[in-house]
Specification:
1185 residues; alpha/beta; Growth Hormone, Chain: A; Immunoglobulin-like; TIM Barrel; seven-stranded mixed beta sheet; seven-stranded parallel beta sheet; 34 helices
Length: 1185
C-alpha cells in the first residue's frame, strides 16, 4: 500500500470524518439543554435514535450482501440523498423558527424537539454513508496485509497510523467547526455550510474521476471484480481452492446455508455476519414497533430514584423507552461483535479447537471491549464538569482542539510499542491527576448556601481551574491520544476487512452515544459544577463517591490495558507461535491483487464521459435547486416589518412583544416590507407593547435618546398622554445572550454591529374614546441626527375590566408599596399580607406590622388587625382577588398528637376566620396547606400512613371553622379521595392533568387552580428562560381551557441560587423582576404575565357576552350567535390544547386574540360590555355553605 491510496480515498476519509463529527454533534444536541429535552411528551427526537439504528442495520446488510461495485454506487446514492435531506432540514428549520428568534441554545433545542423526523432521517442517511465509506476504507486498506513481508507490513502499519490519526484530527476539526458555528454564528449558517461542504466534496469526488489513474483505480477496485487472491484472503481462498462444488451443494441444504453461500461469494465471513445479524434483527423489530406505537401515545409507568425517600413516578412514552433500548442494544452488540471478532482473529491460532476455546477468547474479547467502554464512560464525564450548558460549546471545542495534538502524538509514538505504552500510561495518570484537581477546585471554590443568597443574579461561575488552559490540555491531549489508539485498534488491527461491517457499526454509533451521554451524565452525577451543595453530609459523600468512581474506572482501564496490550503479547511470544507468511509475493502469478500495484485495465473513455457527465449534471441540479430552495425559504420566513433601512448606517425593524430578539439574529432586508408606521389594536384599559430593533450597519450610534409625543385622536380632541407610555431598552443576561431585563432608556450608545432592542409600551386609559390615534417617537443621536417613528393606535369599543376574573397568585409577600404597586400594575396578586406573630403582648401593640400574639397561659390568641387590614384593603381596592393566610406553620410532619399544639392551631384558625368574615374577605382568602405533601413523604411513614395523619389534621382544622377555605397543592388523585371532604381549593401542578378528575371536582363546586414552578419541564408551557416566551401567555389560555379559577407561582423576585445560573434552578425560576440599586426592573417574562391575563379577560368577556346574548334572544340573529360560538371554540383550539399541546407559532396566538377583539368591538353596539365585565364576580364555591 502506498500514500497514493490515501489520495485516492481522500473523499471517503473526509466524508467519514465529517460523518463521525456530525453524529457526535447531533448526539450532543439531543440533550442540549437537558431541561428542554428530558421529558418525553410530544418529543420527536426519538426518530433520530430510531433512524440511526435503522441506518446501522441497513448499512450492515449492504456490507454483508452487496458486492463492492454496488456498495460504491449505493454510497454515492446515499451521499446525494443525505444532501437532499439536509435541504429539507434547513427549510424545516427556517419555517419553524420564523417567529422563534430565541437564543441559539433555545432556538435549536425547540427545533430539534419538534422536528426529529426530518433530522433523524438526515442522521440515518449520514449513518449509512459513514458506515459504508468507513467499511470501504477498512476493507481496501487491509485486504493485502496477510501476504506482505514484515518490512512491507511495517510500512503498511505506518500508513494506517497516518490514516487513523488523519481521520481523528479531521473528525475533531469538523466537530469544533460545528460547535463554533452553532454557538457564535447561527444554526442556519452551520447547516448551510454543511450543505456547501457536502456538495463540494461530492463534486470533487466526481471531478477526480477525470484523473486517469484514479478512474482506473476505482474501476479495478470496485467494478472489474479482480480474481480472488488465495494468498491474501482466506475467504477468497475458500472460494478459489476446491470449494466450488461444496458451495454448489450448499445451495440445496436450507436457507442458512444459502445465506452463507451468498455471504462467501461477496467476501463476508458468515460467523461475523451471524454474530451481529440476529441482535440487529431484534433492533429492527423494536424500531418498527416504536414507529407503529408513536401515534398511540402509549406510556410506561416508571419509578425513578430522585433524592427523596420515595422514587419519582414518571410515565415514559413507550416510543422513548424503545428508542433508548435500541441505541443501547446496537452499541452493546456492535461492541461485542467487533471486539469479540477482533480477539478471535488475534488468538484463534494459538488454541486447539475445543468447546472452551470460544469461551476463553470471548472472555478476553470482553476485557478488550471493557477498555473501550470504560474509556467511553470516562470521557463522557471528563469532557466537562459544569452542568449549565452556556459554556459547553466553547469548552468542549477547546478540549478537542488539544485532542488534535494528542492524535498527532499518537502518530509519532505508535511505531515504537514501548514508547506508546509509556505515553498511554502517562495519559491515564494525567487524567487521574486532572480529576483530583477538578474536584479540589470544586470543593475549594464552590458557593455555599449563604453565598447563594447574596450573590449577583446572573450566571455564577466561581471555579478557577475548570475553564483554564491546563484543564484543556490535560484532558484534550490524552483524549486525542487514546481515541486515536482505540480507533486504530478497532479499525485496522487483526482484520482482513471481511469483518468491517461489525467494526464500522461500533465505530459509527460511538460518537453519537458519547455526545449524547456526557450532558445527562453531568446532570445525573450532580458534581460540584451542578447543584450548589445543600450542606447535607450525604451530598458531600456523593461527591466523594463520584471521585472514587472516576478513579476506579481509570485504574481499571490501566489494568485492562496491561492485560490486552502487554500480557497477551507476552503470552503470544511465549507460545512461540508466530504466524509466518505462507504465500510470498508474486507479482507474475498474482496479477489480480498485488499489494503495491494496481491492475491495468482499459480506460473505457465513453463510459467515463457518460458517468462523469451525468453525475455532474445531477449534482449541479441538486446544488442549484437546493440553494434556490434555501434562499427562497429564508426570504419568505425571516421577514419583519422595517421602519428604516439605511444601508451603511442603520436598520430599524419591528418585533412583537411576545418573542425574544437576540443580538445576532438577522432578517431578510430584501423581502421584508418597509412600513411607514407601527400599528397596534387594543382595548380600553389595556397594556400593549412592541419591540424596536436597531442595528448599526456602519459606525456606532452615540447617545441615542427618545422623546415620546402624545397620541392624538384622529377625529375628536381627545389625546392619550405620553405619560401612559414608556420606552425601555432590553438588557441581556447570561453572558449577554438572553434578553430579559427592561431598563429605562435615558441615553444609550450603540457601539457594535448587533441588535439593540427597545421596548415601547402604552396603557390606554379606562375612559379612552374608541377610534384611531397617532403619535411619534423622536429619536436623537450622533449629536443632532433624528429619526421619527410614527405609531398608530386603534382603540376598540370595549374595556378590559378592572374586575379580575382569574385569581392569580405569585409569591411572595412584601410590605414595600413599590413592589405592591408593581404587582397591581401587572394585574397580579401577591400572596397577601403576613399575619405576623409578636413575641410579647407589648410588641403586638407597639410594632405596626405585628398582627397576633399567643397567650401561652390559656393557648388563646390576641389580634391587632390595624396594619394588616389597611394593607389588605389597599390591595383589594386596586383589584386583588385572592390571598393566602398563613402564620401558623404546619411543617412537613405536624405534631397532631400534641393536644396543646392542636388547640393553638384551632384557636388561631377561628380568630382569623371570624375576622375575615367580619371584613367580608372570605371569598378572597384561603389557607395554604402543607406544600406538595403528596411528593414529599417524611421519613418513617408510608404514603397511606402519612395521608391518614393529614386526614386527622384536616378534620380538626374544619372542626375549628368551616368558613376558611383550605388550598392544597395536590391533584384530586385516587389515593387522596379520603381527603376530598376537607379540601376547598385544589391547586395541582399543571402537568398533573387528569381531565376526568379535575372536571369531577369542579362539578362538585370545588374551586380549582393549577401552578407551575421549576416544573413542568418542556414541552409544557412555563416561564423558564428555556421556554418559548409566549408560553407564559399560553398558560392563561390553558387556564381558560381547563375552566379553572386561578394560577399560582411560588415567587417573583427570589435571588437565591439553588444552582449556578440564574435564580433557583439556574433558568430564572422565581425571578421575574429585578431589584437593583433600590429600583425595580421588570423582565420581559413579567410583562408576558400581564399580557396573558389580559388575554384571559378577552376570553372571559367574549364568553360572558355570548352567554348574555343566548339568555337575551333577539339582540342578534341565532345563526350569527352560533357562528360566533363556533369561531370562539376554533380560536381556543388553535392556540391551546390539552396538556402540553399549544401552537408552535406566536402568530397563531396574536391572530386569535385580534379576532376576539374584533368580535367584541362589533358586539359592543348591542351589549354593555363594561357593565358585564365589572359585575361582581366570585369563584363558585362558598365556604360554610
Amino acid at each position: 500500500m502506498s500514500m497514493e491510496k490515501l489520495r485516492y480515498f481522500l473523499y471517503e476519509i473526509v466524508s467519514v470524518s465529517m460523518g463521525l463529527a456530525l453524529l457526535g454533534f447531533f448526539g450532543t444536541l439531543s440533550f442540549l439543554p437537558m431541561e428542554l429535552h428530558m421529558m418525553g411528551e410530544g418529543q420527536t427526537m426519538y426518530y433520530l435514535f430510531i433512524f440511526l439504528c435503522f441506518g446501522i442495520v441497513i448499512s450492515f446488510l449492504v456490507l454483508s450482501f452487496i458486492k463492492r461495485k454496488n456498495r460504491y454506487i449505493i454510497a454515492r446514492v446515499v451521499d446525494i440523498a443525505s444532501i437532499i435531506c439536509l435541504i429539507f432540514v434547513i427549510v424545516a428549520f427556517l419555517t419553524f423558527t420564523q417567529d422563534l428568534f430565541e437564543p441559539w441554545l433555545i432556538q435549536v433545542g425547540w427545533f430539534l424537539r419538534y422536528n426529529g423526523f426530518i433530522v433523524g432521517l438526515f442522521m440515518g442517511l449520514i449513518t449509512i454513508k459513514t458506515t459504508i465509506s468507513l467499511s470501504m476504507i477498512i476493507s481496501n486498506f487491509n485486504t493485502s496485509i496477510v501476504g506482505t513481508s514484515s518490512g512491507d507490513q511495517r510500512g503498511h502499519d505506518g500508513n494506517l497510523r497516518v490514516l487513523s490519526s488523519l481521520i481523528i484530527v479531521l473528525c475533531f476539526g469538523f466537530y469544533i467547526f460545528a460547535m463554533v458555528f452553532y454557538r457564535y454564528v447561527s444554526f442556519f449558517m452551520l447547516l448551510t455550510s454543511i450543505f456547501a461542504i457536502m456538495m463540494g466534496l461530492l463534486l470533487f469526488s466526481v471531478l477526480l474521476l477525470l484523473n486517469a489513474n484514479y478512474y482506473n483505480y476505482v474501476r479495478s477496485k470496485f467494478f472489474d471484480n479482480p480474481a480472488p487472491n488465495p494468498g491474501n484472503n482466506p475467504l477468497e481462498a475458500e472460494l478459489k481452492v476446491g470449494k466450488s462444488q461444496k458451495i454448489s451443494n450448499q445451495a440445496n441444504d436450507g436457507i442458512i446455508k444459502k445465506i452463507n453461500s451468498k455471504l462467501l461469494r461477496v467476501g463476508t465471513h458468515p460467523k461475523e455476519f451471524w454474530l451481529m445479524f440476529i441482535p440487529l434483527l431484534v433492533v429492527l423489530v423494536l424500531g418498527i414497533v416504536a414507529l407503529a406505537i408513536y401515534p398511540l401515545n402509549l406510556t410506561v409507568h416508571l419509578l425513578i430514584p430522585y433524592g427523596g425517600p420515595e422514587p419519582m413516578p414518571y410515565d415514559m412514552p413507550a416510543t422513548q423507552l424503545f428508542s433508548i433500548i435500541m441505541v443501547v442494544l446496537v452499541f452493546s452488540f456492535a461492541l461485542f461483535a467487533a471486539y469479540g471478532g477482533r480477539m478471535y482473529r488475534r488468538l484463534k491460532k494459538f488454541y486447539k479447537k475445543k468447546k472452551t476455546t470460544y469461551l476463553k477468547i470471548s472472555n478476553l474479547g470482553m476485557i478488550d471491549a471493557l477498555r473501550f467502554l470504560g474509556l467511553f464512560l470516562v470521557f463522557s464525564q471528563i469532557l466537562y464538569f459544569f452542568e449549565f450548558p452556556l459554556y459547553l460549546p466553547e469548552i468542549v471545542s477547546s478540549f478537542l482542539l488539544f485532542g488534535m495534538i494528542g492524535a498527532g502524538v499518537y502518530f509519532l509514538v505508535d511505531k515504537h510499542p514501548n514508547c506508546k505504552r509509556i505515553v498511554y500510561t502517562t495519559a491515564i495518570l494525567v487524567l487521574l491527576l486532572n480529576f483530583f484537581i477538578i474536584f479540589n477546585d470544586g470543593f475549594a471554590n464552590m458557593l455555599t448556601w449563604a453565598e447563594t443568597y447574596s450573590a449577583e443574579v446572573d450566571v455564577l461561575f466561581p471555579f478557577t481551574y475548570l475553564h483554564s488552559m491546563p484543564n484543556f490540555y490535560f484532558v484534550g491531549i490524552p483524549l486525542g491520544f487514546i481515541v486515536s489508539d482505540l480507533f486504530f485498534d478497532l479499525s485496522f488491527k487483526h482484520t482482513d476487512g471481511t469483518d468491517s461491517m461489525n467494526r464500522t457499526a461500533a465505530i459509527t454509533i460511538t460518537p453519537f452515544l458519547l455526545g449524547l451521554l456526557f450532558i445527562p451524565g453531568n446532570f445525573i452525577l450532580n458534581n460540584p459544577g451542578a447543584d450548589v451543595p445543600s450542606g447535607d453530609p450525604t451530598a458531600f459523600m456523593f461527591y466523594l463517591f463520584t471521585i472514587a468512581l472516576s478513579i476506579v474506572l481509570l485504574v481499571g482501564l490501566a489494568f485492562n490495558y496491561l492485560v490486552t496490550e502487554v500480557l497477551i503479547p507476552i503470552f503470544i511470544e511465549k507460545k512461540g507461535i508466530r504466524k509466518k507468511n505462507v504465500f510470498k509475493k508474486n507479482k507474475m502469478n498474482n496479477p489480480g491483487n498485488p499489494p503495491n500495484a494496481r491492475k491495468k485495465v482499459v480506460k473505457g473513455a465513453p463510459l467515463k464521459k457518460k458517468v462523469i457527465g451525468l453525475s455532474l449534471t445531477g449534482l449541479v441540479a441538486v446544488a442549484f435547486v437546493g440553494s434556490f430552495g434555501i434562499l427562497y425559504t429564508f426570504n419568505q420566513t425571516y421577514q419583519r416589518p422595517m421602519l428604516v433601512h439605511n444601508p451603511g448606517n442603520y436598520l430599524i425593524w419591528v418585533q412583537n412583544s411576545t418573542e425574544r430578539v437576540t443580538k445576532d439574529v438577522m432578517i431578510c432586508t430584501r423581502t421584508s416590507p418597509l412600513i411607514d408606521a407601527v400599528e397596534i389594536s387594543l382595548a380600553k384599559n389595556e397594556y400593549a407593547a412592541f419591540q424596536l430593533v436597531w442595528r448599526p450597519l456602519g459606525g456606532p450610534i452615540d447617545s441615542l435618546t427618545c422623546q415620546i409625543d402624545d397620541f392624538e385622536h384622529q377625529v375628536s380632541p381627545y389625546n392619550i398622554s405620553a405619560g401612559n407610555c414608556s420606552m425601555r431598552y432590553v438588557d441581556f443576561i447570561f453572558e449577554e445572550e438572553f434578553p430579559d431585563i427592561l431598563r429605562p432608556l435615558t441615553s444609550l450608545d450603540l457601539e457594535k454591529q448587533e441588535n439593540y432592542v427597545f421596548w415601547f409600551d402604552v396603557r390606554t386609559p379606562y375612559d379612552a374614546i374608541e377610534g384611531d390615534y397617532e403619535g411619534r417617537l423622536n429619536f436623537s443621536f450622533n449629536g443632532g441626527q433624528e429619526e421619527i417613528i410614527t405609531i398608530r393606535l386603534h382603540v376598540w369599543n370595549f374595556t378590559i375590566p378592572n374586575m379580575r376574573h382569574l385569581r392569580t397568585n405569585i409569591g411572595s409577600r412584601s410590605n414595600s408599596f413599590t413592589i405592591i404597586d408593581n404587582y397591581i400594575a401587572h394585574r397580579m396578586n401577591d400572596y397577601g399580607s403576613v399575619i405576623s406573630a409578636a413575641s410579647t403582648f407589648s410588641e403586638l401593640n407597639t410594632q405596626p406590622d405585628k398582627t397576633c400574639w399567643l397567650n401561652t397561659s390559656d393557648d388563646t390568641w390576641e389580634f391587632n388587625w390595624t396594619w394588616y387590614d389597611s394593607l389588605v384593603q389597599y390591595k383589594l381596592d386596586r383589584g386583588m382577588n385572592g390571598f393566602s393566610v398563613v402564620t401558623f406553620s404546619l411543617g412537613r410532619d405536624p405534631p397532631i398528637e400534641d393536644a396543646t399544639w392542636m388547640l393553638r392551631l384551632k384557636n388561631w384558625l377561628k380568630g382569623v376566620a371570624n375576622h375575615l368574615e367580619t371584613k367580608g374577605w372570605l371569598n378572597y382568602s384561603y389557607y395554604y396547606f402543607i406544600d406538595e405533601f403528596q411528593l414529599f413523604i417524611p421519613a418513617g411513614y408510608t404514603r397511606e400512613e402519612y395521608f391518614d395523619r393529614l386526614e386527622i389534621l384536616l378534620r380538626e382544622m374544619k372542626n375549628a371553622t368551616t368558613k376558611l377555605k383550605i388550598m392544597t397543592t395536590t391533584p384530586p388523585s385516587a389515593e387522596l379521595e379520603d381527603l376530598y371532604d376537607y379540601i376547598d381549593i385544589y391547586c395541582p401542578i399543571s402537568d398533573d392533568r387528569d381531565k376526568a378528575r379535575w372536571d369531577e371536582r369542579l362539578a362538585a363546586d370545588c374551586e380549582f387552580w393549577f401552578y407551575t414552578c421549576v416544573g413542568p419541564l418542556a414541552p409544557w408551557p412555563n416561564s423558564m428562560l428555556y421556554d418559548r416566551l409566549y408560553a407564559i401567555r399560553v398558560l392563561m389560555w390553558q387556564a381558560w381551557l381547563y375552566n379553572v379559577h386561578g394560577y399560582l407561582f411560588w415567587y417573583s423576585y427570589d435571588y437565591h441560587h439553588a444552582k449556578y445560573g440564574l435564580a433557583a434552578n439556574g433558568w430564572g425560576d422565581g425571578l421575574f423582576f429585578y431589584l437593583q440599586g433600590g429600583q425595580i426592573y421588570d423582565s420581559i417574562r413579567w410583562e408576558q404575565y400581564l399580557e396573558g391575563q389580559e388575554d384571559y379577560e378577552y376570553l372571559w368577556l367574549l364568553n360572558a357576552t355570548l352567554k348574555y346574548l343566548e339568555e337575551n334572544p333577539g339582540l342578534i340573529p341565532v345563526n350569527e350567535l352560533n357562528n360566533y360560538k363556533a369561531e370562539f371554540n376554533a380560536i381556543i383550539s388553535s392556540v391551546v390544547g390539552e396538556k402540553w399541546v399549544y401552537c408552535d407559532h406566536v402568530s397563531t396566538l396574536y391572530s386569535g386574540r385580534d379576532r376576539i377583539g374584533l368580535i367584541l368591538d362589533d358586539l359592543a353596539s348591542v351589549v354593555n360590555l363594561t357593565a358585564l365585565g365589572e359585575a361582581q364576580w366570585f369563584p363558585p364555591y362558598k365556604p360554610g355553605a
